[in-house]
Every structure is written in structure tokens, then in C-alpha cells.
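note to self — DONT lose this again. spent like an hour looking for the file last time. sequence + predicted structure for the chain T wanted, 180 res
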Amino acid sequence: AMREAREARERMDWHRGEMKNEQLSKDGTKHFEEARERLADAQERLEELAAQMQESVHATKADEVAKAAEQLAEARENLESAPLQDDAQSREQSLDQARQQADAATQTLEQARQQMERDRQKVEELARFQELAQQQRELARQAERQATAAQDAPMNQDWQERQQQVEERLRQQLREQPQA
């Protein structure tokens, strides 16, 4: 969707100078139509994505994606109305608004993408910590079973080594990620 928005903006730029004329060239008309199609496709994809995101771990970013879809809809409307304006200044102004809205949508999406990437890293770190904690709990259960099964027998050396390895991995993770 971001790529389509950028491509639409590029197509708008290609024929910006023609807005001074009463009518667009054949190529200008074709490229503006392609830009409108790309904006419409991107808008549709973003609306679908925002709906899907409501049910995911990225639900907090769904509103930003929906906002970007609205910005693309406004860009498309301005692009459609640009050639229909009476004077060159109004046509250029409508085209400039369309370009700005496409840029704003792209920026909104980029910010949301960056935040989701940061969130993904945090989720992965949390999963690693949870896995280590689960291993620690399992080893503790095994130790309890061994202790009750053989009260007098010395602790199994293998079990002690595994316990120490898990403890050391947990300490290492905490040193690397103190915020966790």
C-alpha cells in the first residue's frame, strides 16, 4: 500500500505542469487515471488490513492504518477533482493537496510499521523469557519429584547441570535486556 501511494504520487508529479493547461495530454490523463487506481487499491488494502489488525496483537495500530486509508481516499478525491477545476491555480492546488495527502498517508504507515517492528521485538523477547521461565518451572518440578522419590539419595548431577544452565541463560537474558 505504501508503494502504491508513492507510485501514485510520482504519477501526479510527472504531469503537474500540465495543470496550467485547459486539458491534460493523453499521457497525463492516462497517468492520472493510474494514480487514482493505485490510490484506490491502496485504500482498499489498508481498510482490509485495519479490519484484520483489530483482531491481532497490533490492534492499537489499526486506527493509524485506517487513518492512512482515509488520507488516501481524500488524495484520490482531490486528484479526481483537479482536472475539473476552472482555473490553473485551482487545478494545481487540488493536485498539491492530493500529493500532500498521499505523502501524509505514507508517513502515517511508515510510523505505524516502525512501531509494530519495535513491538515485535519486545514480543519475541518476552516469549524467550517465558520459555526460560517455563524451563525453570519444569526443572523445579523434576527436582521436587526426585526429592520425594529419593530423599536420601544425592541429587542427580545431570539435573543440577541443567538447572544451572537454565539459571545462567536467564541471567544472561536479564543482563542483555534489563528492562524485561
